[in-house]
Amino acid sequence: MILDNARELSDRFYNYLLKCRSRGVEFNRLLMLAASDVDSVCAVKILLHLFHCDHIQYSLTVCSRFQDCVDAVAAAGDSVRTILMINCGAAESVVERLNVSDKVRIYILDSRMPVHLRNLYSAKQVCVLRKFSQEDIQQIPRWEEVFREEEQEENENGAPDGEGGKETDDNDDVMSQSSQNFRGDAGRARARKRREKERELREWNSKRIAVEEGYYKNVYYQDSSAVRMFELAHLVSKDDQELFFWAVIGLCEMFMQRKIGSTEFVEKSVALQGHVIRLTHSIDLENQQNFRITYGQDLALRFYRQWSIFESLNNTPYTVAIFRAWENKGHAKLHEFLADMGLALAQCKQTYSAMDFNIRRDMMEWFQAQAPEWNVPDLISGGSFLATYGFNQKFQINDMALGLFACLTVNSDKSSEDNFHDALDTLSKHEFDRLDRALQMGRDQLVVLRKIVQSAFEEKLFVGMTHYVQVCLDNISTAGTQFAGRPEVLIPLAHFLQETYVVMSRGQRVKKAPFVLVAQLQPPSTDGTGDFLHVVGLPGADNVAAGMKNFMGKAFRAAARQAKVELELDSFEECLVRIGKRSKTAFLDALIIALSAAPTEPQSNRH
Amino acid sequence: MFGQRAAELIRELERASDDALPPYKAESVRGICEEMQGIFEANCRDRVNLDADGIEQATAVKIQHAMHFRDTAMSRNKRCLIAYHYNRMERLRNLRWSLGGIIPTAIRQTLSEKETEWFSNYSKALTNYMMDVAELPDQDPADPQDPVVLDLTVHQRPPKEYFIDVKVLVDYGNYETQDGETIFLKKHMRLCMARTECEHLIRQGILQHVQ
């Protein structure tokens, strides 16, 4: 069942939770399973606020892969009647995989598409809390295409039984010859009918497989879960600036991690504009200590408000790619760009907050004037959210999203669950120090990623295959253990590498070619048996820019089937898999075959 | 001078901190009572003098003024004594609510005999009342099995929030709450639980309160 608009969300989802409170002991606890990504942290934060207001009891478990969800549900046993899955579970048939009884209700809040058909067509037990555009609805196969009517299935099952029954009948009752003749005729007719049915079923089945394949082919994202929950909070009149801030972080993260394209991001930001006005309006203007969010044009440089302009230009993926900032020539070009603009080097290398006020004020215009000349139109973002706490330095919420991502993926002695809770605490009210620390971490992570990209270019690790581009990083474990030690980081790293490579090689074909990153995260062990490689697959760069539709997960699975390699999903992302180090060659060979079988796929995926 | 000791008595009680019970000043109380007795007798004598025949008008007025003055002093003494005892009683009652039915010996020594008696009476009355409140209507009063007492002295202030957010620090397994709900506690989980349920789990270090 789909709970599409916000009103349904509040009526059928939130009111159900409220009602559960008074229905007795076994109903009143909600089990929340949350994936450990930024959007999910924000959505959980908003929900916790709502639950706190309404005294809804919950248990929250952080899951990094689907098996964690299964374990959590199994451990909770019969005591749970309502399950809410946040950014996980949409791609699986949850009722079967989680093995729950039919008394349990499952709500799925997932930004990932496609949603498993069994979840969509579940009558009541599974509810999918998300918006479906007209286009999405059209892509969903019709019910009769993928499911058979109950009675038909019963007939299928019933046929062998009937036959069995007839046989025993025959043995027992040999009295009436004529009736047996009659039965024989009927039997033949029935057999013919059955054969026909079987043929029909086979046809339908093959059609069904094709339809499902088409439906499940691309993984893409839509509609941040946090924003969805904010809409719910708005509807039940419990929204405020803080909640809005969290929702915007969720949305910005999707944009920064290339889960949604820039047009989609702008559309959604504009839709949120109304909230900005409404919520800022209510703030007492006298009290400047308050937390404020504004929306407007800004430089699309990462962390520049906490950094210096020069460092930011030197590390933002977009400018790194354009200027080739790691080369001497690129460095010179960067200086030239700044000189053209009239920015003194002393000023650019200064921390942003210490720069001349006049420069800070006019800088936007200078950048705007120079952008067309240097062919860097994306340096100025059409719209980005800015937040400020009292008299503190403003920061871009885009940066905050990256900072939170760094918090979640920092590789220390803490587990990923601890990271999740830390991230939740970071978002707590009036904790500017923690927000600052998160921004710092995001910056550090960006520097580490840039170093890895630089070394990949210097060592010429890019291999252009016929159908895709491949990079193998073996030394990642030594390059940045703290900030690039977890598999999730490989996805932004792959985006960074791809973007830079595409700009470098300037070919149309490269733009369309899928991108594969193979990386080893742990230092190699002595015997090499327990070594794993992580493989990230991205579709062509033009596809990524338009809002990623990733078919690589499917390609990986096909390749693994071909090469008989065991594939492990280490997260909820299909495009990030783990393989044994020994099967690397076999897997990559099979991947070449799998991708060459469908070379035009990236183009056909675009609309 | 009249009333000096009484004022001193009150001042002393005032000097002690709000809920402390300074030792009972039996000596002063007795002294004040004697003073009052003396005043009363002097007034009685003057009354007789006033009624005597042939008393001059000027003298009568003088005697009347003296009697009035003594009377005021006496009622002031009386008020002080009542205030002293009343305040001590209030403090004693607070002790019953905060410390329970048994007074620590250090405090017991500061009480007078009457106060000890009052305390035990009050304690008894309170216990009876608490048993009355807890008694269920369908309970058989003839069956004197383990009397149910609703302890009114605990949770005197309403909690700020009934449910609190907690984080689980260790793998604990199933935990059954008072209302029969089973909650599975696993490390790194975050829950919202009734405060009363998790107070002792927090004390044991199984849960941690999240602000």
UniProtKB/TrEMBL annotation, chain A:
GO BP term, pick one: mitotic DNA replication preinitiation complex assembly
Chain intervals for the UniProt region annotation (Disordered): 148-197
Major localisation: nucleus
Keywords annotated in UniProt: Cell cycle, Cell division, DNA replication, Nucleus
Stretches of the chain forming a coiled coil according to its record: none
Record's subcellular location: Nucleus
Entry's Gene Ontology cellular component terms: DNA replication preinitiation complex
GO MF terms, alphabetically ordered: chromatin binding; DNA replication origin binding; single-stranded DNA binding
Membership in a protein family: Belongs to the CDC45 family.
Protein name: Cell division control protein 45-like protein
Organism of origin: Hypsibius exemplaris
TrEMBL record, chain B:
Coiled coil: none
UniProt xrefs under CDD domains: GINS_A_psf1, GINS_B_Psf1
Gene3D superfamilies: 1.20.58.1030
Oligomer and partners: Component of the GINS complex.
Primary role: Required for correct functioning of the GINS complex, a complex that plays an essential role in the initiation of DNA replication, and progression of DNA replication forks. GINS complex seems to bind preferentially to single-stranded DNA.
GO biological process, one term: DNA strand elongation involved in mitotic DNA replication
Matching SUPFAM superfamilies: GINS helical bundle-like
Origin superkingdom: Eukaryota
Family per record: Belongs to the GINS1/PSF1 family.
Domain DNA replication complex GINS protein PSF1 C-terminal: 160-210
Compartments in which it is found: Nucleus
Name the UniProt record assigns to this protein: DNA replication complex GINS protein PSF1
Keywords: DNA replication, Nucleus
